[in-house]
Amino acid sequence: MRAISELCVGEQARISELAADWPPFLSYLRNRQPGKALPYFLKLRDPHAFVLVRDYNLFTDIQDQALQLIEFDEELRRDGREKEVLEATSPHGIAIDLLVDHTHSIPVSGALGWSTPFCELTKGSSQIPRVISQLQDHRKYLYMYLDALFDKDAHLAFDYSDLQVDLYAEFKPDKLMDFLRASNYYSLERAYQICDARDLVPEMVFLLGRMGDNKRALTLIIERLGDVQRAIDFAREQNDTDLWEDLLKYCETKPSEQPTSIAKVEHSADKPLHRVHSRAA
After folding, report:
1. What is the four-CA torsion angle of 164, 172, 169, 189, rounded to 10 degrees?
2. What's the rounded Cα separation, in Å, for the pair 26 and 29?
3. pLDDT truncated to tens, each residue of the chain (281 aa)?
4. Phi, psi dihedral angles at 7 (to 5 degrees)
5. Angle at alpha carbon of residue 190, lines to 189 and 192, rounded to 5°
6. Which of 200, 199, 198, 238 is nearest to 218 (CA)?
7. CA 128 – CA 130 distance, rounded (Å)
């Protein structure tokens, strides 16, 4: 832990200002109790609060102040002051960075003893429920926190995968597909309902394919996306002869797309397909 004499001139000057307004403040730092000084930084809306957390590893002290830190950081970002002290590495700000980068440092609620299973002792998401419980009434902050966790490690917040699907659909739909592909922990049916409600057709196609409902997926590609090449790629990925036949039937019912589309399908299929309509004699 750094002594006051080791702080830079600017930090010492700021501490002197704070000490004049808050007499106990300086004594906490002199006695090497930075955790007790942190609330004064937050009350004064001083961005050095984040420096204090980082430099003195005050993650136990902030374990129940996640919401306050994020709200303060959002104030700084709105005022264009977010780079005054520390620069964030994620698009969600320095408060989210600190919480995510030190996932293992913030203790989980309740004590861990000798009888605690090893899987719990090593569980990467140990502090995540504690933070999420503080953010549960702030969906945007929940999205920001869980998205940053996903960027760090796609498996860190696996217990909240269903919630992540919902939040991505609401706040960042163009990233939802990345999450759907990377995770195996969410409910396919629930994810499909969410995407259907928001008319996220490519995501619906992906989920139907993962559920094994290839015919419905192909129907969506054809009827909603109108993308024959995508339908061909999907049929090739699924390696399902019935899909090729269905795709050929669709092309034969669309005179405007003949003969190019039919030729594409027949050329792409692994084996000869049965034509529904015979060629004219």
Report:
1. -50
2. 5
3. 444 444 454 555 555 555 555 556 667 777 788 888 888 788 878 888 898 898 888 888 887 889 999 999 999 989 888 777 788 888 999 999 999 988 876 554 433 333 434 344 334 446 899 999 999 999 999 999 999 999 999 999 999 999 999 999 999 999 999 999 999 999 999 999 999 999 999 999 999 999 999 999 999 998 898 888 888 888 888 877 788 888 878 777 765 554 455 455 554 555 544 444 444 33
4. -75, 155
5. 65
6. 238
7. 5
- What would the two tokens of residue 198 be? 């928001």
Task: Please state whether the peptide bond connecting residue 259 to the residue before it is cis, i.e. omega within 30 degrees of 0.
Answer: yes
Both structure tokens of 119: 């899987």
Treating both helix axes as pointing N-terminal to C-terminal, what angle do 48-55 and 94-101 enclose, rounded to 10 degrees?
10
DSSP track, the chain = ---GGGS-HHHHHHHHHHHHH-HHHHHHHHTT-HHHHHHHHHHTT-THHHHHHHHTTTTTTTTT-HHHHHHHHHHHHHTT-TTSS---SSTT-HHHHHHHHTTTTSPPSS---TTS-HHHHT-TTTTHHHHHHHHTT-HHHHHHHHHHHHHH-TTTTGGGHHHHHHHHHHH-HHHHHHHHHH-S-S-HHHHHHHHHHTT-HHHHHHHHHHHT-HHHHHHHIIIII--HHHHHHHHHHHT-HHHHHHHHHHHHT-GGGTTHHHHHHHHHSSS----SSPPP-
* Cα–Cα distance measured from residue 206 to residue 266, given in angstroms and rounded to the nearest whole number: 24
